[in-house]
Design the sequence.
């Protein structure tokens, strides 16, 4: 499974701030339930990032057990929101930006222009 394959995921949440990346499935599920007051057994993907911002962990309930995803960048860092200790729900587009090394909060977007044809 790729972190960009969201076909079975109902929502994606980022654990903003720092997470101790030594935590296992049970530790991450406890953060989801106790700190964020969310259900770790939902079909949501919960993403966590440590201080170095070069690796993330994902936690996903698959109905019969948890899937723990781990991605480590060989060069670069994730643009992870560090301003609070909340679970921020993000869109599939924001997840793509994050995986491409971009900020999830893009300031502007280029809009398609439809030229007016003169006859």
Sequence:
């Amino acid at each position: 499974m790729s972190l960009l394959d969201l076909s079975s995921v109902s929502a994606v949440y980022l654990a903003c701030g720092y997470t101790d990346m030594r935590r296992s499935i049970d530790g991450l599920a406890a953060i989801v339930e106790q700190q964020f007051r969310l259900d770790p057994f939902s079909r949501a993907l919960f993403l966590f990032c440590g201080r170095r911002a070069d690796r993330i962990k994902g936690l996903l309930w698959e109905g019969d057990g948890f899937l723990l995803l781990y991605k480590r960048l060989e060069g670069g860092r994730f643009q992870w929101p560090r301003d609070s200790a909340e679970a921020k729900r993000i869109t599939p587009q924001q997840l793509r930006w994050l995986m491409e090394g971009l900020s999830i909060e893009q300031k502007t977007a280029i809009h398609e222009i439809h030229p007016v044809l003169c006859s």
In short: The longest strand covers residues 55-61. Strands lie at 12-15, 45-49, 55-61, 66-72, 87-90. Residues 25-35 form the longest helix (11 residues). The radius of gyration is 17 Å.
